[in-house]
User: Fold this.
Amino acid sequence: MLKGNILTNDGWIHGTVRFENGRVTALEGHIADPSSNDAPYILPGFIDLHVHGGGGRDIMEGGDAADTVARQHAQHGTTSLLATTMTAPRDELMQVVAGLGEQAKRRAASGARVLGVHLEGPYINPGKLGAQPDAAAVAVRDEVLKYLELAPIRVVTIAPEISGHLDIISEMAARGVRVQLGHSLGTYDDAVNALKHGARGFTHLFNAMSPLHHRDPGMVGAALAHAEYAELIPDLLHVHPGAIRAAMRAIPRLYVVTDSTSAAGMPDGEYRLGSQHVTKCMGGVRLADGTLAGSTLTMDQALRNLVSLGIPLADVSNRLSRYPADYLGLEDRGRIARGAWADMVVLDRDFALTATYVEGESIVEYAH
Assistant:
């Protein structure tokens, strides 16, 4: 049982949430603005659909790396996530995905639930790698279907302008995979066409995609004009606060991701991102040439960053929990409701995380 200001689908209530056997069993209380009291905030647990690493471990290492990553992010309020791959040679990627398929069948002790895989590479444009290794490939149907057999692939990032990729987008969308456009030099028309073929989102909006120009609106312009969903990294390094505000006005269900690397939760130094070596310093992660290479962001810090921009807490919470759950079609996560998984975070009045519950299990409790 938890008591405080509880954010529900219908707004704030001041009262109690009860849970048993991993599920919410009751919500009791009355409608109340949190400003009318000094009780803590109780929000749905955070859902991060783009996680490369944390706690010094990288998803592409395989083995028990995903367990460490899941535990690290649970310490910051993430209750479920997608293990996100990097571009790599086919055999290496197949091996990693197969391991993640096994990981998704269980939950690491004191860790977030791994809902499946976000296949960020290799079906990207070699001219827009960002921090991805130079191993981009053209999607082939049989290969894509093999990945789908090995693990629950929930999200795939793809460059729609590559020949043959529209057919792959249609195939994956028909199989329930959320196809996102990213790491792309595609035009506005390429993006619009991909959306017509079943693409649903955009990967780290603004980053590693053709930008908006008023006579050449690019991928960004297509997202702002047509997308219902897109992911964005609000570490305040990847995207300017003004661009964040523009995207929030244009895209109804813009949601937050960390794109976090093995450097998340770690001191400054050298780390791994797939086959690349990256350096954490001054709050960011970069390749040797200075290119931003993922982030050190955690979801609780993402929340504080957005609140610091003047965005209401309930709106921020939706973008960290409810919208990513809706994007994946998960009706029992991302919300505090009777019958839903008891995935919850507790924040004090300064928005510091004081407790995390994953499927009813108390993962971490911080002393006030």
User: Anything to note?
Assistant: The mean pLDDT is 96. The radius of gyration is 19 Å. Residues 313-328 form the longest helix (16 residues).
